[in-house]
Amino acid sequence: MATVQIGEAQRKASLLLLPGEAKVGDYVIVHAGFALHTVDPEEARESLRLLQELAACGSDEQPV
User: Fold this and answer.
1) With contact defined as beta carbons under 8 Å apart, do 38 and 26 qualify?
2) Model pLDDT for residues 28-48, shown as the tens digit of each residue
3) Which residues pair with 29 in a beta bridge?
4) What is the model's pLDDT at position 62?
5) Cβ neighbours, 10 Å, residue 49
6) In the chain, what are the domains?
7) Is 13 exposed, middle or buried (CB count within 10 Å of its CB: 0-12, 13-18, 19+)?
8) Which of 10, 17, 30, 61 has the most other CB atoms within 10 Å of its CB?
9) Other C-beta atoms within 10 Å of 35: how many?
10) C-alpha separations of 54 from 12, 37, 39, 57, 64 in Å
11) DSSP string, 8-47
């Protein structure tokens, strides 16, 4: 088990399905409480930036 940070929250995630080793500071994809694979740090930062940008756009839209 590992403690992962998702935004401002910390959660527990199982490392049983993760191929290879994870170390402190690694970015991992977590689904249903399981870390599935590690992600390149630059790729992870870019993905997080794009998700934040999308979330910001969505907050300005009016419901249909």
Assistant:
1) yes
2) 999 999 999 999 999 999 999
3) 37
4) 57
5) 10
6) 2-60 (2.30.30.140)
7) buried
8) 30
9) 21
10) 26, 24, 20, 5, 18
11) TEEEEEB-TT-SS---TT-EEEEETTEEEEEE-HHHHHHH
